[in-house]
Amino acid sequence: MAQGTPETVPNDGLTTKQRRNRPMVIVNQGEGKGKSTAAFGMALRGWNQGWSIGVFQFVKSAKWRIGEQTALEALGKVHEETGQGGAVEWHKMGSGWSWTRKGSEDDPAQAARDGWGEVKRRLAEQIHGLYVLDEFTYPVEWGWIDADEVVETLMNRPGFQHVVITGRRCPGPILELANLVTNMTKIKHPFDEGQKGQKGIEW
């Protein structure tokens, strides 16, 4: 429900409007399909609200151009030409971050740290209204990026900036910080029957 009534109201001194309009940390995790898809759906809604959208893909290969990227970048062009919606930026670690000259294939751990460093800079400068950190849980789980540093950065980010994190097995400290956590649970999947991904379903 878009404007449902909460079951409990905390004694936090905030008005209903203040409580509703707080920047969120959102985690989509689990073994099931749909983690990134849900995040990109939120990016579409954010674009409609006029937010600047920043998408940072931490694992996916640059050779795989998913449909959501094409759609959101097209909306970014609509914004540039008409002023409608918000600006859109899409960055992939697999192609080497656009702000570095070195390709990420040389050292993926360092590339992940470079990407996180850029996200930190943008948070500090309040560049975007919505950040999608796609498959960000993996470099944190692998120890490439420090979970406590992520928590501290997100906890102390200024202004009104939403952050969505996707991936399996999100580290506990980030889950503890998050305002909204969804666990995608697989019940059935065509892959289990040997079926490969389909256009419009997987990309």
From TrEMBL:
Region (Disordered): 1-23
Extent of Polar residues compositional bias: 1-16
CDD domains for the chain: CobA_ACA
GO molecular function terms listed in the Swiss-Prot or TrEMBL record: corrinoid adenosyltransferase activity
Family matches, as Gene3D superfamilies: P-loop containing nucleotide triphosphate hydrolases
The organism's place on the tree of life at top rank: Bacteria
EC number: 2.5.1.17
Keywords in alphabetical order: Transferase
PANTHER family: CORRINOID ADENOSYLTRANSFERASE (PTHR46638:SF1)
Protein name: Cob(I)yrinic acid a,c-diamide adenosyltransferase
Organism: Arachnia rubra
Organism ancestry: Bacteria, Bacillati, Actinomycetota, Actinomycetes, Propionibacteriales
